[in-house]
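agent> Task received from the user: take the single chain below, predict its 3D structure, and emit structure tokens. No templates, no multimer pairing.
agent> Plan: (1) validate residues, (2) run structure prediction, (3) serialize to tokens, (4) report one or two observations.
agent> Step 1 OK, no nonstandard residues flagged.
tool_call: predict_structure(input=
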Amino acid sequence: MSGKIKILDFLVHGGHQYEFFKNDAIFYCMGVNNELHTYKSLGRPEQSNVNFIQKDYLEKISPDIVMVRSGVNPSKLEPFVKMGSKPIAVIQTTRPFKIPDWCNIVVWNSKKTMDDFKDQIPYKKHFYVVHGFDPNEFCNKNINKNNRVLSSFSLFKQRGDILGFNNWNYVNNNLKICDVIGHGNEEIPSNMGTFKYPELVSVYNSYSIYLNTTTQSAMPRSRGEAMMCGMPIITTSFYDSNIYFKHKINSLIADTKYDMISCIKLLLSNKNLINEISLNGIETAIKFFNINDYIKKWDFILKF
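)
tool_result: status=success, residues=304
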């Protein structure tokens, strides 16, 4: 046995957990409803320290840590906690799920959400950890762009105002140059489907602009990926946006559909501005969304 920390986790967000699994630990990953997954479920390369299991395998392991995530029934985890496993909750939404009394550590990936709700979850230790990407994976390939606008949302139309679908639809109807990637978007004519790594990076690199229309997004995940790939970002100003995105420096800020159209036209007509925002964006993404910093923060939490 290697002596590394053993962590039991449940697959709820493949991209996030691919990065989380880069921590120096041995992971046992289950489906929320006991599905048996493989590394392909993450949409990312295979990781040798990750074991995909079902509940029949649980009796064979004694995890040091159990991850508490949205959608996972706490009753599945409590027996491990009673046997000494340390529970760590992760909140990736704008509203927290109920944290069990026996869980004393809560990790948030939105500072605003943490600040808004942590006092309602007393007697816990709270940590803020934003996403972390590897600049060697999400990189600028310096290839020709297609003069089109990309967004990344799943169940876009169904989730409506939360993701700003009506604004995006207005922009697309007026400019006819917008595409969306993600699952559950089959009814949208410009839907591109889903992409796994490394195809996802090639998609980011082929588009001229990334447009984020969300009003309630706790995490700048796809914006961080796109920014690290050199895409000029047009984003709304909600939640943690103001921490990372600065207007006409490393991005353009647009909260209305009219401003979104104006920003798209401005970028497509000004190559110098596109290049400046692209370069500043890469620098920003590497500074704030760096996998090395992400792993250091998680290493501290796992050993806390």
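agent> Step 4: summary for the user.
The longest strand covers residues 5-11.
agent> Done.
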